[in-house]
Protein: Ribulose-phosphate 3-epimerase
Amino acid sequence: DRSLKIAPSILAADFADFGREVQAVEAQGADWIHVDVMDGHFVPNLTFGPPMVKALRRHVTTVMDVHLMIAPVDPFIEAFAEAGADILTAHIEAGPHIHRTLQAIRAAGCRAGLALNPGTSVQLAAPLLDMCDLVCVMTVNPGFGGQSFIESQLDQIRTLREMIGDRPIHIEIDGGVDPGTAPRVVAAGADVLVAGSAVFKGGSVADPAPYGANIARI
Ligand code: DX5
Ligand code: ZN
Structure:
Protein backbone atom coordinates (compact mmCIF):
# COMPACT_ATOMS: atom_id res chain seq x y z
CA ASP A 1 0.00 0.00 0.00
CA ARG A 2 1.86 3.04 -1.24
CA SER A 3 -0.75 5.58 -0.15
CA LEU A 4 0.67 8.51 1.79
CA LYS A 5 0.96 7.93 5.53
CA ILE A 6 1.73 10.51 8.23
CA ALA A 7 3.62 9.19 11.26
CA PRO A 8 3.73 11.76 14.08
CA SER A 9 6.90 11.46 16.17
CA ILE A 10 6.08 11.58 19.87
CA LEU A 11 9.53 13.07 20.46
CA ALA A 12 7.71 16.40 20.02
CA ALA A 13 4.74 15.46 22.26
CA ASP A 14 4.24 16.02 25.99
CA PHE A 15 6.48 13.39 27.63
CA ALA A 16 4.32 13.37 30.76
CA ASP A 17 1.16 12.58 28.78
CA PHE A 18 2.11 10.18 25.98
CA GLY A 19 -1.04 8.05 26.25
CA ARG A 20 -3.39 10.94 25.66
CA GLU A 21 -1.08 12.55 23.07
CA VAL A 22 -1.15 9.32 21.03
CA GLN A 23 -4.94 9.07 21.30
CA ALA A 24 -5.26 12.71 20.25
CA VAL A 25 -3.14 12.46 17.09
CA GLU A 26 -4.78 9.16 16.09
CA ALA A 27 -8.22 10.77 16.47
CA GLN A 28 -6.94 13.64 14.31
CA GLY A 29 -5.86 11.36 11.46
CA ALA A 30 -2.38 10.02 12.20
CA ASP A 31 -1.69 6.83 10.22
CA TRP A 32 1.23 5.48 12.27
CA ILE A 33 2.88 6.48 15.57
CA HIS A 34 6.65 6.99 15.35
CA VAL A 35 8.64 6.27 18.52
CA ASP A 36 12.25 7.52 18.69
CA VAL A 37 14.51 5.39 20.89
CA MET A 38 17.88 7.05 21.64
CA ASP A 39 20.77 5.72 23.72
CA GLY A 40 23.14 8.66 24.30
CA HIS A 41 25.81 6.72 22.42
CA PHE A 42 24.73 6.16 18.81
CA VAL A 43 23.09 9.60 19.00
CA PRO A 44 23.82 12.43 21.45
CA ASN A 45 20.45 12.26 23.22
CA LEU A 46 18.47 9.91 25.48
CA THR A 47 14.81 8.99 25.32
CA PHE A 48 13.27 5.70 26.43
CA GLY A 49 13.38 1.92 26.25
CA PRO A 50 11.16 -1.16 26.06
CA PRO A 51 9.04 -0.42 29.18
CA MET A 52 7.87 2.88 27.66
CA VAL A 53 7.12 1.18 24.33
CA LYS A 54 5.10 -1.44 26.21
CA ALA A 55 3.15 1.24 28.08
CA LEU A 56 2.42 3.05 24.80
CA ARG A 57 1.20 -0.16 23.16
CA ARG A 58 -2.09 0.05 25.09
CA HIS A 59 -2.83 3.41 23.46
CA VAL A 60 -1.64 2.87 19.89
CA THR A 61 -4.42 1.45 17.70
CA THR A 62 -2.66 2.13 14.37
CA VAL A 63 0.92 1.00 13.75
CA MET A 64 3.71 1.43 16.30
CA ASP A 65 6.78 2.37 14.28
CA VAL A 66 9.85 2.14 16.52
CA HIS A 67 13.02 3.88 15.31
CA LEU A 68 16.05 2.47 17.12
CA MET A 69 18.88 5.01 17.34
CA ILE A 70 20.95 2.67 19.49
CA ALA A 71 24.14 0.64 19.20
CA PRO A 72 24.36 -2.26 19.57
CA VAL A 73 20.84 -3.16 18.39
CA ASP A 74 20.70 -6.95 18.56
CA PRO A 75 20.62 -7.38 22.38
CA PHE A 76 17.40 -5.31 22.52
CA ILE A 77 15.38 -6.67 19.58
CA GLU A 78 13.53 -9.29 21.58
CA ALA A 79 12.60 -6.80 24.30
CA PHE A 80 11.20 -4.25 21.83
CA ALA A 81 9.30 -6.98 19.97
CA GLU A 82 7.80 -8.23 23.23
CA ALA A 83 6.93 -4.65 24.15
CA GLY A 84 4.64 -4.63 21.10
CA ALA A 85 6.48 -2.78 18.33
CA ASP A 86 4.98 -3.45 14.88
CA ILE A 87 8.00 -2.11 12.99
CA LEU A 88 11.57 -2.08 14.28
CA THR A 89 13.95 0.12 12.31
CA ALA A 90 17.69 -0.22 12.81
CA HIS A 91 20.48 1.98 11.44
CA ILE A 92 22.94 0.64 8.90
CA GLU A 93 25.62 2.65 10.76
CA ALA A 94 24.89 1.01 14.14
CA GLY A 95 27.21 -1.95 13.73
CA PRO A 96 28.95 -4.35 11.37
CA HIS A 97 26.11 -6.87 11.15
CA ILE A 98 23.04 -5.10 9.80
CA HIS A 99 22.11 -8.18 7.72
CA ARG A 100 21.94 -10.27 10.89
CA THR A 101 20.01 -7.51 12.65
CA LEU A 102 17.33 -7.37 9.93
CA GLN A 103 17.02 -11.17 10.05
CA ALA A 104 16.61 -11.04 13.82
CA ILE A 105 13.91 -8.36 13.62
CA ARG A 106 11.78 -10.46 11.28
CA ALA A 107 12.48 -13.59 13.33
CA ALA A 108 11.13 -11.71 16.36
CA GLY A 109 7.86 -11.19 14.46
CA CYS A 110 8.22 -7.51 13.55
CA ARG A 111 8.37 -5.76 10.23
CA ALA A 112 11.97 -4.75 9.52
CA GLY A 113 13.12 -1.22 8.78
CA LEU A 114 16.53 -0.03 7.65
CA ALA A 115 17.52 3.58 8.43
CA LEU A 116 20.28 5.54 6.71
CA ASN A 117 21.91 8.71 8.02
CA PRO A 118 22.37 11.66 5.67
CA GLY A 119 26.07 10.84 5.29
CA THR A 120 25.37 7.29 4.08
CA SER A 121 24.80 6.40 0.43
CA VAL A 122 21.44 4.74 -0.24
CA GLN A 123 23.32 2.44 -2.63
CA LEU A 124 24.49 0.55 0.48
CA ALA A 125 20.90 -0.64 0.95
CA ALA A 126 20.94 -2.61 -2.34
CA PRO A 127 21.92 -6.03 -0.91
CA LEU A 128 19.48 -5.59 1.98
CA LEU A 129 16.29 -4.48 0.26
CA ASP A 130 14.63 -7.91 0.16
CA MET A 131 15.05 -8.13 3.94
CA CYS A 132 13.30 -4.79 4.48
CA ASP A 133 9.67 -3.78 4.79
CA LEU A 134 10.73 -0.15 5.07
CA VAL A 135 13.74 2.03 4.33
CA CYS A 136 13.99 5.21 6.38
CA VAL A 137 15.95 8.04 4.77
CA MET A 138 17.07 10.50 7.44
CA THR A 139 16.72 14.09 6.28
CA VAL A 140 18.39 15.42 9.45
CA ASN A 141 21.23 14.02 11.53
CA PRO A 142 19.42 11.87 14.09
CA GLY A 143 19.21 12.86 17.74
CA PHE A 144 16.89 15.84 17.97
CA GLY A 145 13.57 17.12 16.70
CA GLY A 146 13.11 20.53 15.13
CA GLN A 147 16.18 20.53 12.85
CA SER A 148 16.19 21.76 9.25
CA PHE A 149 15.62 19.46 6.34
CA ILE A 150 18.77 18.50 4.41
CA GLU A 151 17.87 19.28 0.80
CA SER A 152 20.56 17.09 -0.77
CA GLN A 153 18.68 14.01 0.50
CA LEU A 154 16.03 14.51 -2.21
CA ASP A 155 18.44 13.01 -4.78
CA GLN A 156 19.01 10.03 -2.49
CA ILE A 157 15.23 9.49 -2.14
CA ARG A 158 14.86 9.46 -5.94
CA THR A 159 17.74 6.98 -6.25
CA LEU A 160 16.19 4.71 -3.62
CA ARG A 161 12.78 4.88 -5.34
CA GLU A 162 14.42 3.60 -8.55
CA MET A 163 16.28 0.87 -6.68
CA ILE A 164 13.06 -0.37 -5.03
CA GLY A 165 10.93 -0.29 -8.16
CA ASP A 166 7.68 -2.17 -7.64
CA ARG A 167 8.71 -4.05 -4.52
CA PRO A 168 6.37 -3.56 -1.54
CA ILE A 169 8.88 -1.60 0.56
CA HIS A 170 7.93 1.68 2.19
CA ILE A 171 10.16 4.72 1.83
CA GLU A 172 9.95 6.68 5.07
CA ILE A 173 11.38 10.17 5.50
CA ASP A 174 12.42 11.37 8.94
CA GLY A 175 13.47 14.89 9.87
CA GLY A 176 12.38 18.40 8.99
CA VAL A 177 9.16 17.30 7.31
CA ASP A 178 6.67 20.18 7.16
CA PRO A 179 4.17 21.56 4.64
CA GLY A 180 7.07 23.08 2.66
CA THR A 181 9.22 19.96 2.35
CA ALA A 182 6.52 17.24 2.31
CA PRO A 183 5.37 17.71 -1.32
CA ARG A 184 8.96 17.45 -2.52
CA VAL A 185 9.74 14.24 -0.62
CA VAL A 186 6.51 12.70 -1.90
CA ALA A 187 7.37 13.73 -5.47
CA ALA A 188 10.80 12.12 -4.96
CA GLY A 189 9.11 8.82 -4.09
CA ALA A 190 8.43 8.68 -0.33
CA ASP A 191 5.20 7.27 1.08
CA VAL A 192 5.62 7.52 4.89
CA LEU A 193 6.34 10.94 6.39
CA VAL A 194 7.53 11.19 9.98
CA ALA A 195 6.75 14.60 11.46
CA GLY A 196 7.42 15.72 15.01
CA SER A 197 7.38 19.46 15.51
CA ALA A 198 5.20 20.08 12.44
CA VAL A 199 2.39 17.92 13.90
CA PHE A 200 2.56 18.79 17.61
CA LYS A 201 3.04 22.56 17.43
CA GLY A 202 0.10 24.57 18.70
CA GLY A 203 -1.95 21.60 19.96
CA SER A 204 -2.43 19.83 23.27
CA VAL A 205 -4.45 16.93 24.63
CA ALA A 206 -6.94 19.53 25.90
CA ASP A 207 -7.33 21.04 22.42
CA PRO A 208 -6.07 18.60 19.77
CA ALA A 209 -7.73 20.36 16.82
CA PRO A 210 -4.45 22.00 15.72
CA TYR A 211 -2.93 18.49 15.42
CA GLY A 212 -5.55 17.64 12.82
CA ALA A 213 -4.98 20.88 10.94
CA ASN A 214 -1.22 20.30 11.00
CA ILE A 215 -1.59 16.72 9.71
CA ALA A 216 -3.95 17.89 6.95
CA ARG A 217 -1.46 20.60 5.87
CA ILE A 218 1.37 18.06 5.56
C1 DX5 B 1 15.30 12.62 14.87
C2 DX5 B 1 14.12 11.70 14.99
C3 DX5 B 1 12.89 12.23 14.35
C4 DX5 B 1 12.39 13.52 14.95
C5 DX5 B 1 11.85 14.35 13.83
O1 DX5 B 1 16.43 12.01 15.37
O2 DX5 B 1 14.41 10.45 14.39
O3 DX5 B 1 11.87 11.25 14.29
O4 DX5 B 1 11.39 13.35 15.90
O5 DX5 B 1 11.49 15.59 14.33
P1 DX5 B 1 11.09 16.79 13.37
O6 DX5 B 1 9.90 16.36 12.57
O7 DX5 B 1 10.77 17.89 14.34
O8 DX5 B 1 12.28 17.10 12.49
ZN1 ZN C 1 12.72 9.00 14.05
Summary: The chain has one domain: 5-217. Residues 9, 34, 36, 67, 174, 194 surround zinc ion (ligand 2) (CB under 6 Å). Residues 112 and 214 are 28 Å apart (CA to CA). The chain is about 30% helix and 20% strand.
